[in-house]
Amino acid sequence: MSQTSDLSWHQSTEENGSQPPLSLQNVHVSYRTRAGSVQAVRGVTLDLLAGESLALIGESGSGKTTLGLGIVRLLVDTAEVSPGQIIYRRDGRELDVLSLAEGPLREFRWRDCAMVFQSALNAFNPVLKVWDQVWDTAKAHNWNNRSEVRERFLDLLRFVQLDPDRVIDAYAHELSGGMRQRTLLAISLLLDPQILILDEPTTALDILTQRTIIDLLRRLKEDLHFTMLFISHDLAIAAELADRVATMYAGQVVELGPVSEIFYRPRHPYSLGLIRAVPTVTGGFEELSSIPGSPPDLINLPSGCKFHPRCPFASERCSREEPGLERVGDNHFAACWHTDAVQEDIERNGLRGRRAA
Amino acid sequence: MATATDVSNVSPRGSTSPHSVLRAIWSSYFFRKFLRALATIFVVTTIIFFLVRLLPGNPIEIYVNQLIVTYGMPVHEAQDQAAALFAIDLDEPVILQYFSYLQNLARGNFGQSVLSPGTTVTEVILRFLPWTLFSVGLGLLISFTVGVLLGVIMAYRRDSFLDHGFTVVSSIISSVPDFLIGLLLVVWLGVQWKIIPIGAMRGAYSSGMVPGFNLEFFADALFHGALPISTYVLTSVGFWMLSMKSNTISTLGEDYVTIAKARGLKEWRITTAYVGRNAILPLFTILTIRVGFVVGGSLLVEQIFEYGGIGRMLGQAINQRDYTLMQGIFLIITFSVIFANFFADVLYGWLDPRIKLQDN
Description:
Chain A is α/β, with parallel strands linked by helices. In chain A, about 35% of the residues lie in helices and about 20% in strands. Chain B is an all-alpha fold and about 350 residues long.
């Protein structure tokens, strides 16, 4: 594919580096509220490796989006990221993202780390044409060659399978939801960022449009080797696009491993619960089991393992001591006292379980 | 219903028949808008014509009463003098008066002032209207600009001391009627503390000044307009501040603003083109509609400051039952309100690409 290879300029430099382009070290995020401090992210340590796509999965309120926004420092004013470190590396340079000043932060955003948001429906300024917003983006990063930017963006629109001439001079309200999402994806590639963060890129789209977006992301991953962090509660999409998966619960990574491990040999009861809660097209409802209870109150967290009040494997120890991430297989880590029991349960009842809801 | 775009679709078919051209004109948005405006003006004109005649008393009676009270003239003498002075025949059936008024109006003739024979209504309007447009227009412009800027600052400094202070002050000021603020300015600044020479500030410009486009005259006009203008600014700036503040706050929460930040745009660009432009959109409509009320909104304030504008003229015309003058000024008010509404539509369609000027 001659066309797609033009789209990424950095590819070669990035893959020879052994250092991961993004490292999160013990990142905490809390929101100040009247009721107290909401601990949305509690000590996440994670490396995003060059060229990989890492999926963050978990329920609403598990801290996935907060973590994603925290990386590009777009959290609301009431949020505080501390303690913790976010280290970004490019071409041998290291940046401490959390201590970047206004100017360097602006440069870091989009050029180094672009983010595609949950709701592309509202992603565009309604009174500016798509092209004006693209041009704004280029200018903000001192790319002032108008015809060059336009050429590049037209290429990208072709890449996301949109009619470039129709979209480039359109206003957002003239585009459908799927077209907006793809346009936003095209803009996110404009500056050829090293890292792409995708926050629920297919939510709020119909199933066929989801398909085109997933195919596009797959091409980004397989042909262009983009480094992607994507945030999703849709396990099917994660299974299809991710190399590695991190399951988040109550602001922590509770299981981390290669995609096949997590989805076929999960060792954390929460990952297993998520998998068993996914419906299949042919299966009936009786095969589904949901995870009982609801996500924990992030102001007054339970003691010990935060999942124990909802966990079918919980023992007395779980309510006292909080487990850390332990190695359970090749590159596979889980934070649970009962990883063996989870394994036995899968062997006995199968991955999808036998319990009726 | 066909829309404006049909105009272009009709001609290529080679059928430039009068019928299709008429149809195209009829279906044009502006043409229908124009017809509706004409109908509105006609109805309002009619209502005003009969309403002013329903006011108790008539111009001659009032004049006669004045002569009796001021000069102690006997009734007959006063009536004779009035009859000799005024060329108006009030005994003519009202419906005939109405038709002759319409006839004159269609020719662009507003008639003569009842009480100042020889002066046409058009002359009076042309002489006094510019001062009202100047003072109210300038006041509106200042309060809009200041209010919008302060509103944005308040939104960006939400919950600061400045925000709370401005919110309280602007809520109080904007809930006091303009004539009260005008009275307070006269009483406090002019009479009690004697800070400003209110006597010298009466009228639209100092006597002896020759109107012209020079700095001296402009300064003089500003001096005379200062009090009404300050009143307009004081009473309306709070509205603009509070509206702009709430619009800005809700725009700041929009996804496209977050994404603009994520794209690394400069703060100034985000504030102006992404936040400001979207937040100010609804205010432009209100602004244009308020422009329409410029003429009518100055009635009480101009009387308080004795400012030589159309509002004070209207007050006089009402007091003396000068029918033709009242009709003329009311017609101008109607006209400007309708035109401003029309202009608001056009402006909004131009500023907001989501709105297309077509119905159906």
